[in-house]
Amino acid sequence: MNYKNWRVDGNPESDLLMHDKGTSRFIVQADISTCFPSIYTHSIPWALVGKEMAKQTVHGDTWYNKIDQACSDMRNGETHGLLIGPHASNLLSEIILTVVDKKLYDKGYRYARNIDEVLQWSAAFQIWPAVILKSDCLLLQHFR
Asked: Can you list the alpha helix ranges (DSSP code H) found in the chain?
């Protein structure tokens, strides 16, 4: 177990509230549906070195292609889906989802994400569906 003093160590929720300056009326919670089963193993190299670089070296003996191969070997050669449960799957999903987080952050969206659960404060009820749609588009565009 890990105990933290949030007043000293901080946490993303309070950082979001400070950024928001208390203007939010809504807390929106969302879950990335079937997160692990929907991740393609070849999207891991895309997140690590970029899609173009990974595609250029798809048959090469690189460290990121070895990760892709190991993940597909765990599913009998299937490239669709990560195993649910192993901590390695959490790490691999974080590699992909932090790239999506960065792209959304660069577009001005602020939220807290814990694996596949997302929490955001919003001043208007209509704002969050646009973020969900934008994140789905980023996932489809870059990692599927």
From this structure: 6-9, 12-20, 43-49, 51-56, 63-74, 87-106, 127-143
In the chain, what are the domain boundaries?
8-143
Q: Which pTM does this prediction carry? A: 0.71
Task: Give CA 93 to chain center in angstroms.
Answer: 6
**Measured on CA atoms in the order 130, 131, 134, 140, is the torsion positive or negative?**
negative
Tens digits of residue pLDDT in 71-122: 899 888 888 888 888 888 889 999 998 988 888 788 777 778 888 888 777 7
Measured CA to CA, the distance from residue 143 to residue 51 in angstroms comes to 9
* CA 36/CA 115 separation, integer angstroms: 10
Contact at 8 Å (CB) between 67 and 74? no
